[in-house]
Amino acid sequence: MHDEKPLWYEESVREKIIAFVICIICGLIILSSETKGGEVFLSEYWERPIPPQNDFNKFPLYPEECGKCHKEQHNGWKGSLHSRAVGPGLLGQLRTDKDPQFAQSCYFCHAPMAEQSEIILPSPLAGEGQGEGIKNPSFDNKLKLSGVSCSVCHLRKGKVYGPPARKTVSSKKQDNHNGFVEKDFFEKADFCEACHQLDEGYELNGKLLVNTYREWKESIYGQNNVTCQNCHMPDRQHLWRGIHDKEMVLRGVRIESVRRDKGARITITNSGVGHYFPTYATPLVVVKGFMLDKTGKVIQGSLKKAFIGRTISLDLSEEIFDTRIPPQKSFEFDYATRGSYSDGKITFEVWVYPDEFYNKFYKAILKDADMDLNRGEVEKAIETTNASPYRLFREVL
């Protein structure tokens, strides 16, 4: 990564984010007219901000209320990144009173309900996209901090939506929702597209920064309808495990190492991930090869590294490299020994840094004493991202 001065942030990154989110919002509002006879389509369902519910007593919006009956789903959600979508990294940067458009661009996916936003912005379609907005009378800070919670996905205009009920679920239980609406799009990958595909998003080197849905659709998984939910919500569990979870990653890749003449090779195959590994520009996978002496210590000067990921500059202006592994493809790393190492043992390790970009980004913006930040929250974000790396694989040949 480059050592950019963090002053670029407010002038460069915010403008790029705001521009593409306004394009997406306009597109969603136009698409939302796709209704026939009162039928709700997915494009309308994901209109954002999600219209206010205006009835807190009928259906409490807080996830812990849903958890009173849906304990398993609530427990899964609590441990997921969806529950932390509004975390220290986001809170540290937001200044809603001074830059409401930037806040709204973040809330677009991190907190998309109308009640989660402090400010109501003028509609960009009305030619008022640059207005500062007005105070939101229905704003609920507790709901904002719940991030992508039950209400975000399941509640629209006072009605509870969800996938078709299984035969084991009694009709009486569904009646508790006073008209539960079944929709099969909850079990389709298109449902996840709303936040995990930004077709009007910012591009680098001709490639979108958020392109997960298209990566899936063009793979054998998309062609065979093995959906996002199959892997990230098995048996309808609300887990959404991804690259932060070691066991999840080990199920998605196959790692093989073999000794060769004058060295060794390690091959990492994207054998079960339904999109690129990794899909976003935030993680980094580091492959290490080194030699151990007879006492088990690393021989000085023997370490070599290779990188799997999409590394971009902190100001989003440059793609430094893109070595991600498409589905069913492999990454190979050859380690060559020198004569003086011939009696040592070749060792391979694979390390995963799920928040590599975020970690460097937070440290960069914190260096600027004049930057308008909630520094305590940014420091928490740095602490969290410092702790996320883990060793995925190790083998001594």
Structure description:
The protein has 397 residues and is of the alpha+beta class. It has 2 domains: 8-166 and 175-184, no CATH class; 246-396. Helix content is 31%, strand content 19%. The protein has 16 helices and 15 strands. The strands form 5 sheets. It has a 5-stranded antiparallel beta sheet. Strands 3-4-5 form a 3-stranded mixed beta sheet. Helix 1 packs across helix 6 and helix 15 (356-366) packs antiparallel against helix 16 (375-386). It is globular and about 75 Å long. It starts with 7 loop residues before the first helix and ends with a strand. Mean pLDDT is 87; it is low at 25-37.
Question: Main traits of this protein?
Answer:
397 residues, alpha+beta, 2 domains
Provide a short characterization of the protein structure:
The chain has 397 residues and is an alpha+beta fold.
Oligomer: single chain
Mean pLDDT: 87
Strand fraction: 15-25%
What would you call the shape? Answer: globular
SSE diagram, text form:
Layout: H1 8-31, H2 42-45, H3 63-66, H4 71-78, H5 88-93, H6 100-110, E1 119-120, E2 134-135, H7 141-145, H8 150-154, E3 155-156, E4 159-162, H9 171-175, E5 181-182, H10 190-196, E6 203-204, E7 207-208, H11 212-217, H12 220-223, H13 228-232, H14 246-252, E8 254-260, E9 263-269, E10 284-292, E11 304-312, E12 319-322, E13 330-336, E14 345-353, H15 356-366, H16 375-386, E15 390-396
Parallel strand pairs: 4-5
Antiparallel strand pairs: 1-2, 3-4, 6-7, 8-9, 9-13, 10-11, 10-14, 11-12, 14-15
Helix pairs in contact: 1-6, 15-16
